[in-house]
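Workshop exercise sheet. Pairs work together: one partner reads the sequence aloud, the other fills in the structure field after running the prediction. Swap roles for the next sheet.
Pair: D.N. / O.F.
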Amino acid sequence: MAFIDGTALPVALPRLRADFGADIAAVQWILNGYMLALASLTLIGGALADVYGKARMLALGCVLFGLASAACALAPSPVWLIAARVAQGAAAAIVTPASLALIGATYPRAERNQAIGVWAAASALTTAAGPVLGGWLTEAFGWPFVFWINPPLAIVAVGILLVFAPKDSRIPRQFDVIGAAILASALGALAWALSQIGPSEARVAADGSGGTTTALVVATGLGIAGLAVYAIWERRSADPMTPPRLVENRAFLGLNVATVMIYAGISIMFFVLPFDLIDRRVLSSTDAGLAFLPFTLGVGLLSNVFGGLADRTGGRPMLIAGPVGAALAYVWMALAQNEALMLAVIIPMALLGLSFAVLVAPLTASVISSVDQADEGLASGVNNAASRIAQLAGAAMAAGVASFESGYEVGLFVAAATSVCGAFAAAAMPTLAAAKVESSGEA
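Structure field:
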């Protein structure tokens, strides 16, 4: 539910925007309201799973996600929909870290990488299948049915947990509510600032009012200052969401920087491509969703294969090759925009699917392996938060550059640049064994 929802909705956005008569900023916040809540609350969700039990919190998160999805489907206005999407994101902030932490609590360490590979492949498959399912549902039944798929899934998930989940173990821990509030405020300010990038900003500034320019500068300053305050608070808090020892672990830090760069790139592509397919190429929502099928098949069918290969050969080569392949796919799509659909979209999407199949499972498993066993649940929460923050920033940036005449090409070139930066971050990180010694104080 949590992964498919982020990619099924973008294909429905053109229809949703037309039905509500909304502007691009409102459409962007329908995506980013979800991402903001998810990014800022994921670490709190991980703490809740440790304190109250992983299976219990996963079940509660599924119930809340199903209810919030029903509220989205029934939304009579953009404001209602944005509010319901924020509630959905808060529920997903419980579901996502609890699901991965439950694997860590269930499987012995020798089997954990393989289990994480299955988790990564399943999450990648549902993420990749989103555009196809979202396009078909929008075309056949209307955009609300993108949300109606979630309540039945929530019921099934809760039933499985009640029957099969192991007995919960709990860890005493306080919640860093102040840290979560600071982070959410900072991310919201930065996301709004990013969404204002484009010619419309320049036109407002040119008319002499300067209002939007001032607001943009203030929001950017508040966002950056908020992140600085968050860093200071985390060093002083008794129960920080991101303990300093994780930041001092260079392998863990490098993997999360790579995560931010890689997922920012894919988020930009997921935002700009549906508008090009539907508005410029005049494809139906279903056909636009099917254009993502090569990506879906590549990620869904090959993630497990490359995850097993990473166990035998090491993950670093794949963490470099995957982002580089993704960057090539984005550049290909940008340069071939005016070519036939097969050359401009289908073939590069197949390359993109292969590239993400190469990197998804090794990236997730490497993050968990880069820390001591006692920190594995916390590490999964931080990495999930990093990927959501990246998607939040990517969607906001994409909404900004979309206002340019060449917004499609600009967005894809930016996506390529972030992916290459992700490859450099993976290449520069130390070995996992050295990082563990470093973080434990034995170096």
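Discussion prompt: The two ends are 42 Å apart (CA to CA). What would you look at next?
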